[in-house]
Amino acid sequence: MTSPRRATVWTRWVRQPQSVWLRKALFQVHLWTGIGVGLYISVASLTGSALVFRRGLNALLRPATIVLQSGTRLTENQLRAAAQQAFPRFQIARISIPTRQDRAAEVFLVGGVRQTRLFDPYTGKDLGDADREVPFVLWLIDLHDNLLGGPTGKFVDGLGGFLLALLCMTGVVIWWPGIASWRRGLMVGRGANWKRFNFDLHSAVGFWTVVALFMWAITGAYLGYPEPFQRFVDVVNPPNLESLEPSTSDLVLEWFGRLHFGRTFGTPLGVLWVIVGLAPAMLFVTGAIMWWNRVLRDRFPKPTGDWNKGAGGQEDSFLKNR
Asked: Which contiguous run of DSSP H or E holds residue 268?
């Protein structure tokens, strides 16, 4: 039988969660964790969104390979023969010969891994990897994966994944506004002053993206600390050492990488990954604005005049109670 005290706490949680002590404590955890790692998470989200289209970025920024025009260009069959001789273990899937006479031809190879090579259309010489990374993209990768700090940066990056997971879990709890007004947390209200608009935007974006953010948090923590995750899944699902087939745990961890980067699901889902990937930066900005309004603004002398009357006057009660 539920005690009256517990019933009262549960009733307060359902109807007016702002008055529950645990919710207030989790709000402080959410607030200070967001302040502490919000900028880092924003950088990770922006670089991660950019790297979803890593190949496109490389293609856009990579300078064209210029070849010396000497004699007559080889035919497609001659280029195919030259490529097959250079890469006998691969199959030639396709050859792309550019219309411009001074550009290299692209040869698409299949065999275990896919790769694209550049060939001189006049001599049939292999000129290197067509998908080579440009310096700016390499810098973005290092910033996203290692915070430009090598193994130490990778360690911090993995820790950031756990802290993002903490933000997601505390955010789910403090998002609940009560049974009478829960719908307000799903959308941005119309005609609200800028403080209410900022609050609604933070609440709605957090609600609609929390599942994706939690997925990125856990998969990001795995990429930072792969060994503990591997040991854990091996305990849950011990590998069969006599089988050459990948175990279920190996497949799960492989999907961790695929889900985190989102590059293997095609352009439509890649676009979605980019859009949702910008959510942490938006949550950081809107959260920082709320923190300024609630905590920092009163610590600074207020300027004279009526410049701030259009901002909504005194802070609304829905912010004071949070």
From this structure: helix 267-277
